[in-house]
Amino acid sequence: MDYPEVPRRLAQDGAEVLLIPNDDPPEWGDVQRVQHAFLFRMRAAESGKWLARADVAGGTSAVSPDGQETAHIQSKSPGKLDAVLGRNKDRTLYVRGGWLLGPLYLAASIVMVVFSCYRYIVERK
Fold this sequence. Notes:
The N and C termini lie far apart (55 Å). By secondary structure, the chain is of the alpha+beta class. It contains four helices and four strands, in the order αβαβββαα. The chain has a domain at 5-91. It is elongated. It has helices spanning 5-12, 30-47, 93-97, 101-124, and strands spanning 17-22, 50-55, 60-63, 69-73. The chain has a four-stranded mixed beta sheet with strand order 1-2-3-4, with helices on one face.
């Protein structure tokens, strides 16, 4: 889940739920674990899918399609996490268009700036 293309391609290929094994290094500190957990939340929101991750070093969780963590267990010993996940066939704009949205917004912004400058020059005359 460190790379956004993986869940995007899974969602494009028809995945309805993302079940992800995770192996955070045991020597990581709290900040690194929180940052990595946030990546999973971002990937769930980007793909619009429920996501469950099982981490061997602790931090097993379930995340809703809007990126909210709905269940969590923080334990380095064996444990059980009870969570209800839904299936979602919908595709977000990101799943459909990928990184195309950024360049499109940039192009639209440039067009608007050029148009505004043109109108300013024409009205000034």
